[in-house]
Amino acid sequence: MLAFEYNKFNGIIIDNSAIPTDETLFLQQLSALLEHARIQNKSVIWLTLSIDLAHLIKIATEQGFTFHNCLPTEITLTFKSLEEDYVPFVPTHSLGGGGFVQNSLGELLVIRERGASTYKLPGGHIELGEKIEDAVYREVLEETGIATSFDSVLGMASTHPYRFGKSNIYIVCKLTPLSTQIDIQDTHEIADAKWILPQDFLADSNNSPFNKYLVKSLVNATGLGKSTLDLSQFSNLKHEVFLAND
Do residues 151 and 136 make contact, with C-beta atoms less than 8 angstroms apart? Predict the structure, then answer.
């Protein structure tokens, strides 16, 4: 039987470090574990196969396992004893951040990507484990060369379907520029960056209705400020809290 441990949700987690590479042996040990789970009335069985064990996927799916989530070097499958057994869902959204940056003249910082004819706010994907504040700061710096400080969260938008069948949440943050000289760092992705008065951005018929609506709606907004509460006293996890400004 495959090596395993019970979890606190009446489930079984298979030890992926002890999975045999031989297909016949794997089927024998997996079948024995399934029978054990049936006798013990266990609900969900979790099986993670590294990429070098990909040849075992077909065997697992033939026994009733289904795909749950995937990483570059491994895939996790689950087996439910009953259809109504609960399996926690995988992440449903990707996150993107945009920087709303205005200089002392009231000009707005915008970029144009390579292959595009329209301008928009600088920004991009929020990486795994990255704070919203850090991600937007990084993206603005990479795309324009402008260093900034975080001010507030101004708004959000949700899009579906997006990439890979997931949804996307786009978070717009107000940033204060600490410099004004544009120096694009990501020249592979960004063709141009510039400062422009909001009214001139809105008057440009090339710019998308969505981006013009963002600028028009947010140009005088204050948004949600970052909380000064030290959450490290409650948890070792990385936190961000944004609360309504007074």
Answer: no
